[in-house]
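tool=predict chain=A
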Amino acid sequence: MAIVGASLASSGRTAPSGGAGDRSASSTERVRRTAAILERRGYAVTPARLGELCLGGPLSEQKVLAAVAASSELESCHGLVLPAGLTGTGPAILRRAEAHQANAAGCLALAMSFVRTLVRLSPYVLSVSIAGSLASGGYLVSDDVDLNLIVEDGYRHVAYVAVNVLGMAHALRHRGKPVDTHTKRPLAPRFMTANLILERSQCFPLARQDEDMAYEFLASLPVYGIAPWREVVTANRGLCQHFPQLEDRQFETVMLARPALPRWLFPAMLDGPARALGHTAWRYMQWTRRKRPDALARVTYVRETMQPYALFGDW
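tool=predict ok
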């Protein structure tokens, strides 16, 4: 298992803005900051995997272990590099890793099928990446599948509605899927969901090129529209200044599906009504979570990490 991760309770801390000096920082500082990025997402990884993901470029496992030994903020426990905020969570993270090994392949096949349908019916979608626990290596059967999309200008809300309508239809076929406080919904489980939707113009340049946004690109798994994804990474040099690994990423799971519907069926004027519909649905879903503070806290945290790209500005 190369990476072990978990969508455990967030620390709730605000992500730093980052900087461009990641390559010149000491190994100890790079390892500490990388572990902090993972901590904000609620998971930890092995020393070898942390070296692969390290800010400023890969480090050997030996250098990571030396950095951990030299740091008062990190410890090596249960085969993981754990910052202070995750002390005691090692066994839970390892259990997620074991569950991922057992469940991820089947869920990835379902996710690919869903993305294929989304792409065929949504000609304005340029790129789709799988994010969240399915990409990071800590998938539980009760988790949902997060999708990051790049779409044509003027189609963010249309894409949001499309993901949710198709997601509901997909979830109705999987009503027996286990749920938790984050994925429980009235009619069917929350399964396929939009995590981040960017319009083309928002990508050139990205308003955010901090280390957390760079890691979002590094940790996600592009499965459709690899060329647009690479175009965004290449055009926003701040991302690669944090993680040079982005420049050399190779992808084994690539979908070659093509849209089956013409673009003219989706005029840009649909985005206004889609925004109103999506906002109404969004507020309803928050209302259904009103008695689940853990779920509301998680939504608040995710929205904070996605600023300024969150679709709706209120509850």
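DSSP finds eleven helices and six strands in the chain. Residues 103-306 form one domain.
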